[in-house]
Amino acid sequence: MNLLKRLSQVFESAVRLPFDDSSRIILMSDCHRGDGSRADDFLHNEKIFISALNYYYPKGFTYIEIGDGDELWENKNLSDIIIAHQDTFMLLRKFYLDDRLYFIYGNHDMVKQSDKYVKSNMYSHFDKREKKLIPLFENIRIHEGLILEYRSENKSTNQKKIFLVHGHQVDFLNSSLWKLSRFLVRYFWRPLDLLGIDNPTSTAQNQEKKERTGRKLTEWVISTNNVLIAGHNHRPMFPDMGEPLYFNDGSCVHPMFITGIEIDRGEITLIKWGIKANSKGILYVSRDVIAGPRKLSELFTTERIFESCSFKDPT
Question: Which of 105, 104, 145, 139 is nearest to 122 (CA)?
């Protein structure tokens, strides 16, 4: 099947979530939460991630994770990941209980496409200390894609949808051959990762594959005249005026920082959370704007005549 056609099929079947100029949404992806071992790429940024979510929760943000939240290629059991990052999951549960949490699956957590798997592994988890099942995300549904449907008082907005998808659908090795890729990662590359050797075939670690994925996602935006926010290649993207409306929220496994996209009260912004030191040498977690903000009303009313898109890294 044509990879761009596959992306369109996800778009057509995606659940639609209404939002307006009062909505507050934070989009993140590619956390790759692991089992707490040396191969766990999320571990060194977990405190930054928790600090960010502790900022967003009291402000009423909805958290949407756009795939690869959990590293289920390297790790067989989600329960090991939940135990290793229990503070993170309890914080995510707070969003869920407030009806402010949505998960999209990516290639590294593709097993979540199975309702049976989700029911067995995500509705609750077994607490080894208390020796009983603890509720987690009861009755949650994991999506392949979501559509944010924008409702504005401005009647001139002719494009009111933002498509959220991980983006692996345009990557043949990570979509059609994902089980083969998982096998190689789990039984070949993970042992080497524990020794500090990176996987050169990974989209996140290969510059050429990053750009190829970005070009394909941009091609879909141009061919369908839609707005797209994706993850997968770990490369933050925020288009300039006149460029195709392909955004990428980056990842939570950059060295010493995480990135995301905020949709906040009618504006879209690419942000970064990282550790800084003040004049006294005290460390603190800081939120910084990488690109934007840009008004959604302008985004949707922009004439869709695109210039060529440059694949610069805004971080």
Answer: 139
